[in-house]
């Protein structure tokens, strides 16, 4: 079991790091998008309208549901990888197929999250965006 966890951790690290690619910067969007928790923490100062609040909440809830579905796909792919790694000999093509499935699901999660962040920014006024940029720079 310990060996399986180590292999899984190694696979996750490889997937997250791009298998040795240059590390991405902490904020790949250079502060141009705002996380929902940042918007909600500043909702009073932003003066969010009821409609803005409702649409922000709806966007977040929708993404959470879709992400949960993909997380099941990711978990299933990694379980399949682990089962395949227990075989002897290991079917390399099958392992890579499962890795592809996991990476596709992870990519979909990232796309959903970016789409949500864009939607959230589009719901804000120029003044609200300027305020969030000012508190981010502090």
* Total separate domains: 1
CATH class category name: Mainly Alpha
Number of helices, counting only DSSP H or I runs of 4 residues or more: 6
Radius of gyration: 19 Å
The dominant shape is: elongated
Q: Please report which band the strand proportion falls in: under 5%, 5-15%, 15-25%, 25-35%, 35-45% or over 45%.
A: under 5%
Tell me what the CATH architecture is. Up-down Bundle
Helices and strands, in order, run as: HHHHHH
Indicate the low-confidence ranges by residue numbers.
1-24
User: Helicity, in percent?
Assistant: over 70%
Give the end-to-end Cα distance, rounded to a whole number of Å.
46 Å
Summarize the main sheet. none
Total E-strand runs: 0
Tell me, rounded to a whole number, the average pLDDT: 84
Chain-wise SSE layout:
Layout: H1 2-17, H2 36-41, H3 43-46, H4 50-85, H5 92-123, H6 126-136
